[in-house]
Amino acid sequence: DQIVAGLDDPYPLGEMEGVGDCYPGKVIDEAVAMNFISAKEKQQIWYDNVLSWYCGENQKEFLLRINAL
Question: For the whole model, what pTM was predicted?
């Protein structure tokens, strides 16, 4: 619950669009494919944990504000 994914733009630190088959999130996709993490953990890393970090206890209010609910 303390791991989040983000972009390193403008400083490419590994996953670079336009380089072979690289894309943001490829390492996480490969971790799921290799069963290092579950699909649920991927969802948490890309979305749930980020939202929790950004909004704290105000997640529902934030999602309503951006029309995501």
Answer: 0.68
